[in-house]
Amino acid sequence: MALHGTPWRPTYQPSAPASVFGSAARKAAGHGWVAQAQASRRWAVVGTVVGAAVALVAFAPAHWLAQAVATATQERVLLANAQGTVWSGDAVLVLSAGVGSRDARALPGRIRWTLRPTGTAVRLALQHDCCLNGEQVLLVQPGFGQVQVSVQPGKADQGDWVGQWPAAWLVGLGTPWNTLRPGGALRLTTQALSLRWAQGRFAMAGSAGLELRDFSSRLTTLPRLGSYRITFSGDPAQAGTALVTLDTLDGALRLSGTGSWSQGGLRLRGEATATDADRPALNNLLNIIGRRQGARSLLTIG
């Protein structure tokens, strides 16, 4: 302290300026928090979208499947009043002649289905109390530009028949069934049956048989015409084509024929005849189902 001269004053020294590195660190921390918040929001949106997509697939309504079946069959096969989901549901099974048809016919009861992924395939299980032989299982294997459907073997006590339906159900398809008004029953059997569609081409392995049992028609006075079988079998020599044969099991009306089934549809050439004793009662029917050539009627489909 000076006794003479300028009095003593405390010296003021301003604090050092803020470090450039400290300011940058605080800015970086702020930007990091914002980035984390934005990332969290993005993941929340992604999670919501994925969750909604999973829920949409898991709970897809059954009428989506009904619409797909109607479109694929040009509304000839319908799943009416569909309930449940694509994965587990039920509906009334209907045959129709297409859009605007007045001859649609429904089967009694409801057909039930369940879809379950299994490896790279999908397992489709079907049950219908009126018509299917227990639970019938189809294995659907999709691929790049192709899909394969295989009928799985049933239980040992079920036999080889898949289902049986009233022949009157065919009236729903329109001409010529709405004229014939068939009676009797249709029974489907299969043996190692597998159908494959690849790049617009069709292939069949194994065989399938459709029996028309105790067939009758309103076009004749006979109460019963007979029983018949149509057999479909894969043709190893010609990919994309199945061989078709028509045979008579028994009855007054005799039917026979051969042909093929391919992407272009069914082609069949054959003939219908009648036993001498029953020809007068069957003349009208023979005139309708084919072109008459003497005592026989020539059958042409496709």
Entry keywords:
single chain, 302 residues, alpha+beta, 16 strands, 22% helix, globular
Q: What would you say this structure looks like, in words?
A:
The protein has 302 residues and is of the alpha+beta class. It has a domain at 160-302. The protein has four helices and 16 strands. It has a 16-stranded antiparallel β-sheet that branches. The model is unreliable at 44-56 (pLDDT under 50).
What is the percent of helical residues? 10-25%
What oligomeric state do the depicted chains represent? single chain
Shape: globular
Radius of gyration, whole Å: 36 Å
For the biggest sheet, the summary is: 16 strands, antiparallel
Q: Count of helical segments?
A: 4
Q: Mean pLDDT score, rounded?
A: 84
In total, the number of strands is 16
Distance between the termini: 127 Å
Poorly predicted spans: 44-56
Classify the beta-strand content into a percent band.
35-45%
Q: What class would the helix/strand composition place it in?
A: alpha+beta
Q: What's the order of the H and E elements?
A: HHEEEEEEEEHEEEEEEHEE
List the topology elements.
Elements (H helix, E strand, L loop, with lengths): L19 H39 L3 H11 L4 E8 L3 E8 L9 E2 L4 E8 L2 E7 L8 E8 L2 E6 L9 E6 L10 H4 L2 E16 L2 E16 L9 E9 L6 E11 L1 E10 L2 E10 L4 H11 L1 E3 L2 E6 L1
Write a brief structural summary.
This protein is α+β, with helices and mostly antiparallel strands and 302 residues long.
